[in-house]
From TrEMBL:
Protein name: Fluoride-specific ion channel FluC
Membrane topology summary: Multi-pass membrane protein
InterPro entries: FluC
Binding site for Na(+): 73, 76
Gene: fluC
Species, as recorded: Gordonia neofelifaecis NRRL B-59395
Family membership noted in the UniProt record: Belongs to the fluoride channel Fluc/FEX (TC 1.A.43) family.
Inhibition and activation profile: Na(+) is not transported, but it plays an essential structural role and its presence is essential for fluoride channel function.
Annotated Gene Ontology cellular component terms: plasma membrane
Length: 118
């Protein structure tokens, strides 16, 4: 049962990523690679929040599997961030790559903290 729900959540996460990316690039066409950066930070924040709820608020592990692995796994995209980092040049590539890594870890930590407040 949980497998099917996780797969469905992953599909919804992928559709959500596509929509956020599509509408962001239409609104701000020169914002490369902003949408992917925002998607990965937002997904990391949500993953951390769910982990915080599981660790500190007694929420069942099933939610972490469905939302963290399913939805956020489909929503976030390391592969696109890697391609965008390679396509960027020089300092911009370094800033984007390091910013994505550090920003995602910090966002996850903030999410865990917020989940622990609930």
């Amino acid at each position: 049962m949980i497998f099917g729900v996780t797969v469905l959540a992953g599909a919804l996460g992928a559709v959500a990523r596509y929509l956020v990316d599509y509408y962001s690039r239409r609104r701000w066409p020169s914002a490369f690679p902003g949408p992917t950066f925002a998607i990965n930070l937002g997904g990391s924040l949500l993953i951390g929040f769910i982990a915080g709820l599981v660790m500190f608020a007694g929420v069942g592990h099933g939610w972490q599997v469905v939302i963290g692995t399913g939805f956020c796994g489909g929503f976030t995209t390391f592969s696109t961030a890697a391609v965008e980092t390679v396509r960027a040049e020089g300092r911009r590539a370094v800033v984007y790559g390091v910013g994505t890594l550090v920003g995602s870890v910090v966002a996850c930590g903030i999410g865990i903290w917020l989940g622990g407040l609930v």
